[in-house]
Specification:
Distance between the termini: 57 Å
Number of helices: 14
CATH architecture of the largest domain: 3-Layer(aba) Sandwich
Structural class: alpha/beta
Number of strands: 10
Oligomer: single chain
Radius of gyration: 22 Å
Largest sheet: 7 strands, mixed
CATH superfamily of the largest domain: Vaccinia Virus protein VP39
Strand order of the largest sheet: 6-5-4-7-8-10-9
Number of domains: 2
Shape: globular
CATH topology of the largest domain: Rossmann fold
Order of helices and strands: HHEHHEEHHHHEHEHEHEHEHHEE
CATH class of the largest domain: Alpha Beta
Helix content: 40-55%
Length: 333
Amino acid sequence: MTSMNAHANELAFAEVLAPIFKASGDPLRLEILRVLRRDTFGVLELSQMFDMRQSGMSHHLKVMHKAGLLEPQREGNAIFYRRPLNLDSGKLADETIRQIFETVDRVPLPRPLEAKIEAVREQRAEQSQAFFSRHSEQFREQQELIAAFDLYAEPTAELIRKRAARQRWQSALEIGPGEGGFLPVLAGLFPHVVALDNSKDMLAKATRVCIDQGLNNVDLIEGVTDTLLARGDAFDLIVANMVLHHVPSPADILLDAAALMHNGSCLIVSDLCSHDQDWAKANCGDLWLGFEPEELTAWATDAGLTAGEQLFIGLRNGFQIQVREFWKSPANA
């Protein structure tokens, strides 16, 4: 009887692992897993990166999805793929998948493939910039179709005030300040504030706010996080209000933010939870239909940040906003 049970266990063991190893036992699929370490890409984007037909790429993605190596994420009418967010260390299949990820991540991506990834990101960035260039005059009206500014700005400001009262913070960075509505909050709490935006039109509006309200301690910079990394800047607090769903690679924003933070510094993000209202892409310039809280946590962990307080705000129109904080190192928060 014991030998029969042992045999049954061996069969069950094989049935769990065989599909995973079969699905991952292909050089191309391993490359796809490496590309999806932090990013979420669509079938067409992956086909472009790997110079193959969409039908062929779809086949590989479906095999990996069926084995649990990937999970689909619907963005409007398109299907994007990412690595699974929730892997249970107590399950054999999940632990095996985690080990596969850890193994493939040890090898850097080839430079030609990195260049193709960057080309996709640039396409996304151009799409976003084109929207803001066309609609800068109506930006507030468009954005408030989803959420009025005060609904997320005030809870975010209150969290920052609470933290700033207990920290000796001197500098703050706002990524994507938009029209500059949040800059008065930061300028009133920090001796030095930097506002970073890649849209000239939006930066011009933020500049007007600073002039009108006499915010003399705010530096407005046109560029992206790479611009500040190249300068060697570092900050005590970084804020990204409703920005991540507009950027080509949200995970990279968290990675760059971590590199721009002092030890003990804090990153505060307010953004949409995942939703299915595709009209937001055309009307508000959104690249992503929100994010699962687990996504933000996973990206932050990968960047070496520790999750702190979180707040979820439900809106009458069906959207939900998440306000999250992440610390560079353990803090007495």
